[in-house]
Amino acid sequence: MTAATADALPAPQASPAPERADLGAWLAVAAGSLGALMATLDISIVNSSLPTIQGEIGASSTEGTWIATSYLVAEIVIIPLSAWLERVLGLRTFLLIATTLFIAFSMMCGVSTNLTMMILGRAGQGFTGGALIPTAMTIIATRLPPSQQPIGTAMFGVTAILGPVLGPLVGGWLTENISWHYAFFINLPVGAVLISLLIVGLPHQKAQLSQFREADWLGIAGLALGLGGLTVVLEEGQREQWFESALIIKLTGVAILGFLLLLAGQIFARRPVIRLQLLLDRQFGSVALMGMVLGMVLYGTSYAIPQFVAVVANYNALQAGHVVLLAGIPSLILMPFTPLLMKYIDIRIAVTFGMLVMAYSCWNDSDLTALSVGGAFTVGQLLRGVGTIFVMLFLNQAAIRSVPPAFAGDASGLFNAARNIGGSVGLAMLATIQDQRLWFHSRRLEETLSANSLAVQDWVAGTARSMGGTSAAIRSIESNVQLQALVMTYNDIFWLLALGILIVTPLVLFLRPLPKGAPMAAAH
């Protein structure tokens, strides 16, 4: 599951909203919710069909993580920029541009024939689709009167949860019944409806292009270079033998340069693209760190589970989507009760409960065997859904409440950027861990199969008679060794995710109780 962000909410440009919103306002809210649904859907729509896509474009399983990672990295960059771009271009113009480009990049993904083309298309989707997520809350805050904003917020919350939950299922169904290409082509008709709603529901606002001069260009460039370079280093380091590779050395330099530029923006820019000084706050720094680990778990499990059931259990994309869907059921059930949860449960108790439940869910998935099928993930997925709603709900509120109201938008953007950074770094690390542990377990298993062992010789002789030769028997041994090593590798991955959650759980001690009786802050 993923979440969206409401960055700094700009003041309405027109007269104050009436006590009851008109049809145009509700059409604008529908447009914002549809845009958020489309963007969050596409974060996870490729997960269940990833094995099929990898096969058709000639990508390995570790290279395939880039199809998910590139979207997240691009989204990290655009989320903090959304509020500024709204002011520069005007909300309707900004959303029309973002939606049009999102459709174009979706078509690019749909016609991709190689990994490079797919990654470029996914990065473009992330950069433009990420803009559709925080602006949904902006529309609610500026087009609806206070008395009707809870309805709009509920609409947004449902779509934001439905997107990641339905993504693997929709992608799997399209892959199995039509083609994986339509997991991207589906954005064309949906995008056309969204553009129509934006034109009808949102008034035109004059662009303020002069604000381009005030932008934190050092921070923007640093964010892209730093996070992009770091992710590539983590993703490709294992295959390139780390610093024995000139490419990895150069990319490390790019990442360091990027982070230095980001730091320079903190010093010289009047309004930095991300206010890193907020991390110095004890509560907010703890929330951001827990958010990073949360991102690792959310995106890591949504990637690892479809891969496992596809390779080990021979599930098709639709079957894998059903397994991923389970994690969203508890979230949808608990969503209507979130105001009561916020009112009566102490934040430290709620976050501790959620973190421990998520840790147990990952540990529960660490005893897989070569005979495991999708049902082995049922308990873990349902528990993960329960833990996610508690952790995400309360950490979102803690992030905003831990800073002055003037910086609430910056805090929300930084928290969600931290979550996505955790997701992208987590996916890159999982690819590295998968390579290393697969090699390790394969070698250890091979060491137990001595050619001089009578048991091995008898098995080879018996298998050779049934399979038509010694070569076929040896290939069968190799295949079984790889299968067992792969299962052990996935067990290691889930165990490490559980350990990561437990390591950061004590940070809940730095959290402060939320104000009693305060309304929920506008964030997701």
Q: Any descriptors?
A:
globular, Growth Hormone, Chain: A, mainly alpha, 20 helices, 524 residues
Can you describe this structure in just a few lines?
This protein has 524 residues and is an all-alpha fold.
Write structural notes for this entry.
The structure is a single chain. The protein has three domains: 1-213, MFS general substrate transporter like domains (Growth Hormone, Chain: A), CATH 1.20.1250; 216-272; 284-524, Growth Hormone, Chain: A (Up-down Bundle), CATH 1.20.1250.20. It has helices at 23-44, 50-57, 65-89, 91-110, 115-132, 134-143, 149-177, 182-185, 187-201, 217-236, 246-268, 282-311, 317-325, 328-334, 338-344, 347-364, 378-401, 408-447, 454-467, 470-504. The chain has 20 helices and no strands. With 524 residues, it is mainly alpha-helical.
In the predicted model, the low-confidence regions spanning at least 5 consecutive residues are 1-18
What count of structural domains?
Answer: 3
How much of the sequence lies in strands comes to under 5%
Oligomer: single chain
Structural class: mainly alpha
The share of residues in helices is over 70%
Tell me what the CATH architecture of the largest domain is: Up-down Bundle
Shape: globular
N/C terminus separation? 12 Å
Mean pLDDT: 79
Radius of gyration: 24 Å
Q: How many helices?
A: 20
Largest sheet: none
| Element pattern in H and E | HHHHHHHHHHHHHHHHHHHH
CATH homologous superfamily (4th level) name of the largest domain = MFS general substrate transporter like domains
CATH class of the largest domain: Mainly Alpha
